[in-house]
Amino acid sequence: MCLGVPAKVLRVWSVGELRYAEVDLGGLSKEVILALDEPVNEGDYVIVHAGMGISKIKEEEVEETLKIWEDLYNQGLHIEQ
């Protein structure tokens, strides 16, 4: 199963043609490659999958997604890492 995780963009930079971002993944700071064509700015939210930011997501959608995950976790449906 593939799982995309919502993350808040903390910082964006480029090296040559590649764009990178430092993102906050539930309190963990991670560096990801931005693999989307649209502009990404500090404060935006992206879906991260396999070390890449693959799409932007609205803050409201992030809140909904995290609420669903919390509900599943509280029901005992834990996702093993």
From TrEMBL:
PROSITE patterns per the UniProt record, alphabetical: HUPF_HYPC
GO molecular function terms listed in the Swiss-Prot or TrEMBL record: carbon dioxide binding; iron ion binding
Pfam annotation, one family: HupF_HypC
Alphabetical list of SUPFAM superfamilies matching this protein: HupF/HypC-like
InterPro entries to which the protein is assigned, alphabetical: Hydgase_assmbl_chp_CS, Hydrogenase_HupF/HypC
Protein family membership: Belongs to the HupF/HypC family.
Name of the featured protein: Hydrogenase assembly protein HypC
Gene Ontology biological process terms from the UniProt entry: protein maturation
Domain of life of the organism encoding this protein: Archaea
